[in-house]
Design goal:
It is a single chain. The chain contains 9 helices and 9 strands. It is an alpha+beta fold and about 300 residues long. The protein has 2 domains: about 1-110, Nuclear Transport Factor 2, Chain: A; about 135-300, Glutaredoxin (3-Layer(aba) Sandwich). Strands 5-7-6-8-9 form a 5-stranded mixed beta sheet, sandwiched between helices. Helix 5 (about 185-190) crosses helix 7 (about 225-235) and helix 6 packs across helix 7 (about 225-235). The termini are far apart.
Length: about 300
C-alpha cells in the first residue's frame, strides 16, 4: 500500500507540470508503431527505460498517463504497471528517473488528470481507442457509388483529423478549424457560448496553428483532459489556460494544419457542417446567425 500511495503521489505531482514533446535521444529505441500512431493523433510519449529486456513507455492522452512495455524482440507489448520478482514497482522508479531527466516540464499542459478504480490502480484504455469521438458514426460520409466530390473529400479529411468536442449534448454537428491565437477564432468561441447547450450546437474543434507558438497551443489542446474548457477560458482572456511548452510534440497539430493546406484554406476560423440531405457547407469566418445554420441542417 505504501508503494501505491507513493506512486499515485508521484503521478499527481508530475501531473501538475508542463508537457514535453516527442523527443527521442540517440540511445533510446524507436517507439512501437502503435504508440507512434497515438503521437500522430496528438498524444505525448515518453521513454521510461529498460528492465529485464522490456522497454517501457508512458503515453499521455486526454490528460491521462498510460504505461506500455515491449519485449526485447519487439513482437509483443503489454499495458500496465511493471513489478520485479520481489514485488517492487519498477514503473515508479522509472517515473522518478524520467522526472530527473526532463525536469519539471512534464504533464501540466495536458491537465495530468489521474483516474483510479476501486483499488487505486490507474485506469487504462485500449490502445486502439482514438481520441474521443474520431470514429463518430453520426458524422461519417455515406460513400456513394461514384467518385467523391471535392466537398465530400474535404469532409472525410476533417473526420480523419484530430479533434475534440465541446458540448457533446448538442444536436447540430459543426466542425471548426481553430487557431488558438487567432483573434477571430477567439471571438467565435466567445460568441457561440449561448449555442453550447443541450439540443444546441455540438462543436467539433480541429485545432491548427499558423505559428510555432499556435501549433504548440493546439498540441496542448489535443493532449489535454479538458480541451474545451481550456479553449473557452483562453478565448475569454485567461492566458494561463493554455501554456505551451517549447518542446511539446506538435505532430497532431501539424497534421490538422496540413488538412487546411490541402484544401487551400488560408484563414481561420472555418466552419464546416453537413445537412440532413448530405449537403456539405463551408463558412469562412464567424457566422452572423447560428439559427440560420441550424435551419439549413434541418431543412436541406
Amino acid at each position: 500500500m505504501r508503494y501505491l500511495t507513493i506512486f499515485l503521489t508521484a503521478l499527481l505531482l508530475l501531473g501538475s507540470q508542463p508537457a514535453l514533446a516527442q523527443n527521442f535521444n540517440v540511445n533510446e529505441p524507436e517507439p512501437p508503431r502503435s504508440l507512434e500512431r497515438m503521437v500522430e493523433r496528438g498524444s505525448q510519449l515518453f521513454y521510461l527505460g529498460e528492465f529485464q529486456g522490456m522497454h517501457g513507455w508512458a503515453l499521455v492522452r486526454q490528460g491521462k498517463p498510460e504505461f506500455f512495455y515491449e519485449n526485447e524482440s519487439r513482437t509483443a507489448m503489454v499495458m500496465g504497471l511493471l513489478f520485479n520478482d520481489e514485488g517492487n514497482m519498477i514503473t515508479l522508479s522509472q517515473l522518478s528517473n524520467l522526472h530527473d531527466r526532463v525536469g519539471d516540464d512534464m504533464y501540466a499542459a495536458t491537465g495530468g488528470a489521474i483516474k483510479n478504480d476501486g483499488d487505486g490502480d490507474p485506469v487504462t484504455q485500449n490502445i486502439e481507442t482514438a481520441t474521443e469521438e474520431t470514429a463518430a458514426t453520426s458524422n461519417r460520409v455515406q460513400r456513394p457509388n461514384r467518385p467523391l466530390t471535392r466537398a465530400e473529400v474535404m469532409f472525410t479529411d476533417l473526420l480523419a483529423a484530430n479533434w475534440f468536442t465541446i458540448n457533446p449534448e448538442g444536436a447540430y454537428d459543426i466542425f471548426a478549424l481553430i487557431d488558438p491565437d487567432c483573434p477571430h477564432c477567439k471571438d467565435l468561441i466567445n460568441a457561440i457560448q449561448p449555442e453550447l447547450v443541450p439540443g444546441g450546437i455540438r462543436l467539433r474543434v480541429i485545432p491548427v496553428g499558423f505559428t510555432d507558438e499556435a501549433l504548440r497551443k493546439a498540441a496542448v489542446l489535443l493532449a489535454s483532459a479538458n480541451p474545451g474548457e481550456r479553449l473557452i477560458n483562453f478565448s475569454a482572456g485567461d492566458t494561463s489556460a493554455i501554456i505551451a511548452p517549447a518542446n511539446i510534440n506538435v505532430e497532431g497539430a501539424i497534421r490538422n494544419t496540413a488538412v487546411m493546406t490541402k484544401h487551400r484554406f488560408d484563414v481561420t476560423p472555418i466552419l464546416v457542417y453537413r445537412t440532413k440531405g448530405q449537403e456539405i457547407r463551408l463558412v469562412r469566418g464567424a457566422p452572423n446567425n447560428y439559427e440560420t445554420i441550424k435551419q439549413d441542417i434541418d431543412n436541406n
